[in-house]
TrEMBL record:
One of its GO terms (biological process) is regulation of neurotransmitter secretion. Belongs to the MCTP family. The keyword Transmembrane helix applies. It is found in: Membrane. It is a multi-pass membrane protein. GO terms for molecular function: calcium ion binding. The gene is Mctp2. The keyword Metal-binding applies. Its main location: membrane. Keywords: Calcium, Membrane, Metal-binding, Repeat, Transmembrane, Transmembrane helix. This is MCTP2 protein. Residues 1-59, 93-204 form the C2 domain. InterPro entries: C2_dom, C2_domain_sf. It comes from Climacteris rufus (rufous treecreeper).
Amino acid sequence: KSANPQWREQFDFHYFSDRKDMLDIEVWRKDNKKHEELLGTCHVDITALPTKQTNCLELPLEKHPGSLLMLIAVAPCTGVSISDLCVCPLGDPSERQQISQRYCIKNSFQNIKDIGFLQVKVLKAVDLMAADFSGKSDPFCVLELGNDMLQTHTVYKNLNPEWNKVFTFPIKDIHDVLEVTVFDEDGDKPPDFLGKVAIPLLSV
């Protein structure tokens, strides 16, 4: 019940500099569980923003009254990567040794914010639900840790997809939960949910 809401939420998105990305933002109003109304949209050209600084933007909503105040920082991304299984970042013994030294007890207070990182190998899924009339699905896998999100490619017409990808996340809170969700790609429509698993970092 506010015309001037304050959310104060921070989200981290990862993008590669060779892409020309637009950040699309939608503001919605919810009356109850069933009724939602779009209050406006706005767009930010990420490539046009100065890097390594926080940009304060007041964005008018298109075709609707009101504006959105945002702080957007474009900065080099550390600790996040997607790679194939054959070039796993932790596969090199010398790199493993460097990491062990970086996080040993005597170095633990050099950078308080550098808690560590999580590496996840997404190999395959087995016996997924068929989402298409053909008896198949077009599955892809989404990994979320805090407000970080990475995803695999889509394997088309397959109930037993193999992705064989390695994902690396920086850890910001040791109490976070890794959520792994499998979706069925459905063209221009929202993807269909095929299953999910949640893994608390403290259980790893």
